[in-house]
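In response to reviewer comment 3 from the previous cycle, which asked for concrete evidence that the modeling workflow produces usable outputs, we include below a single protein chain processed end to end. The sequence was submitted unchanged, and the resulting structure tokens are shown without manual editing.
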Amino acid sequence: MRLARPVVVGLLGLLLTSCALIREPGGRYYADDGPPGGSGPNPASVPNPVPRAEALSAIGNAPYTALGTRYYPVATAKGYQERGLASWYGRMFHGRHTSSGEVYDMYAMTAAHRTLPLPTYVKVKALDTSQEIIARVNDRGPFIGGRIIDLSFMAAKKLGIVARGTAKVEVTAITPAESSGVRSKSPVNRIFLQAGSFRLPGNAETLQRRLVAAGLRSTEVIEARVNKTLYYRVRVGPVREVSDIDGQVEKIRQLTGVTPRVERK
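The workflow returned the following structure tokens.
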């Protein structure tokens, strides 16, 4: 979905870039962003997601800046409908984290939008063919003029726009009858930010001291055994307010050069 995207919200610090931004002007896509050797599930076997009421993501719904523009995600998707260009992104970002903290699956029916709440279900209609799909928005983007939505590879495949790269679409939000929302000042159920993982306890303690000195006082070192190997993990939390997450993620990234891993306990 992206090219050299700056840190925006929470896990947007992973520098995701819009597939739209790596596409040639003529609309053709680079083959290395599709599935290896044309493999992957048959689109006919992948159903549209069934819209349901979901709590808003704990991250990814705060205001953010991308490519010099400030964006303000809306509190509700009710009544949203827009026409514009759709693009898509594929295996270059398969397995990476999305803005909501979920792992991007190029074979799932998902999408990215600049301001709709995460998550939101949308109906996407190709205006030239009237083909329709349903996708679940769990990411941010695209950040290029005229493009209003970035589709996962599978969503684009089912809509019939992979080879073209972009297509004119109509996007309509689907709002379930009931919705359980999380507002920016609501308590978060035990979210931790893992700032580092070390084999040597001294290295973990050094990072802990740096984080505390930077104002992240709720920092601890915990032991974790992975495949019989003992690691010392440094984590910040639990984060008490949703509105605190983005600032703490950015502070850790500036100190360590790495975007922290979000853990829900």
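The first helix runs from residue 153 to 159. We consider this sufficient to address the reviewer's concern, and the full set will be provided in the supplementary archive.
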